[in-house]
Amino acid sequence: MSAQPEVRDTAAPRTGQVVVAKIGTSSITDHHGDIDQAAVAKFVAEVAQLRAAGHRVVVVTSGAIAAGLPAIGLGGDRRPTDAVTLQAVSAIGQSRLMRVYDESFAAHGLVAGQVLLAPLDFGIRQQYLHARGTLARLLELGVVPVINENDAIADDEIRFGDNDRLSALVAQLIGADLLVLLTDAPGLLTADPRIDSQASLIEEVLEVTAELERVAGGAGSALGSGGMASKVAAAKMASWSGVRAVIAAAHRTDVLVDAVDGVAGVGTVVQPRAQRIGARKLWIAFAVESSGRITVDEGARRALLERGVSLLPAGVTGVSGGFLADQGVEIAGPDGAVFAKGLARVAAADLAPVAGRRTTELPEGMVHEVVHRDDLVIVP
Length: 380
Description:
2 domains; Carbamate kinase; 8-stranded mixed beta sheet; alpha/beta; Archaeosine Trna-guanine Transglycosylase, Chain: A, domain 4
């Protein structure tokens, strides 16, 4: 499969910025876990402000499960935990959630358009292009796309995915200038304020490091699937694709306008990296689950890092996990440190017997590349 093209559209000049605004379940629900129409109205009013200022906005929203639970008498202590029931509840709640958005946008003379996506849509070229074309056309028509994950028919995504990650992929997909990740906190803090009263806002991040990711901690509320850690991971994805990201409080007045205008203290600003990667490799690096690991020798590690070549069986020293062809794998050096991810072209069961062999020694008909360079991305 060939690499995805860059998605920024340079065919015609555009006015204003393209903004992806993501809001999570905990920011649009009340203390009972029901959809808070006032919170949605506040968020939509700020989207309308951006539209009036000439910006184009794509909304990524959670909340379908929260909207569906009350309709069938569940929620609170009775909230289901199994994936199949949650998928069914999301199907019930999605139309109810969109009704709230439709009414809120209509109050500002705007039309919303529902788009349901899953991370896999970014890995299949034809689906990727269809999604990009649909979103581009909606924006051209003056519609505000309202995106949610397609939880009702998702597999692992409903349990392991989150809309933070999806919003970062959308930002790359449409060539956004800015990704705003709205949450209950003012941004990324230096420590957990529940433990450290001296915790303060980190206003600017030039590079998301492992230390910063540790500061972000774990999951958020019981209602949502994310947390500050997933916000930082999404901001990192955006940074890698050349998009500025802001993590800020949903309840802050004019938070979206301030984020676009670069107002100091609006939240945590994660600056884009000078070197960016394309959509396909972004998907491989952050959206594809790893189903195994391939260990390589030092020569292969240097070749992958310095020359950008494909990984061949000759450089492989170890295989772990039962991955199949086209599944994600981590690639580690002799020291065990993972330095790359990719899509395997050979299943683990077929690779293990030929590890270390030269191309001329491979069985007839066997694929020569373990991981093709188009399917491989270097990760820090």
